[in-house]
Amino acid sequence: MDKHLRTKQIKNNPILTSSSEEVSSLEWQAVNMNQEEEDLVCRMHKLVGDRWELIAGRIPGRTAEEIERFWIMKNN
User: Fold this and answer.
1) How far apart are CA 9 and CA 64, in angstroms?
2) Could you give the CA distance from residue 67 to residue 56 in angstroms, rounded to a whole number?
3) Burial class of residue 58 in the structure, from the number of CB atoms within 10 Å of its CB (0-12 exposed, 13-18 middle, 19+ buried)
């Protein structure tokens, strides 16, 4: 993969970074969820793990990226 293209992809989607790269939480905006959504994310994560697409499919209007960002920011 072209190095420039990879850098561009990483900047556009910080979740796609490799494990050797660190992403500042300042690049992310906080995801506000109501208590019902938080409970559902926690319960679903216990059942299916890091399958963000599957979890997001259960919460109307939420993307997998939002769910993952919420989870990372909440659990760090």
Assistant:
1) 17
2) 6
3) middle
Q: What is the CA radius of gyration of the chain?
A: 14
pTM, 2 dp: 0.62
Burial of 52 per CB tally in 10 Å (0-12, 13-18, 19+):
buried
> pLDDT tens-digit profile of 24-62?
555 667 888 999 999 999 999 999 999 999 999 999 999
Asked whether the beta carbons of 11 and 17 are under 8 A apart, the reply is: no
Cβ contact 53:62 at 8 Å: no
Quick check: helix, strand or coil at residue 21? coil
Tell me the one-letter amino acid at 52.
W
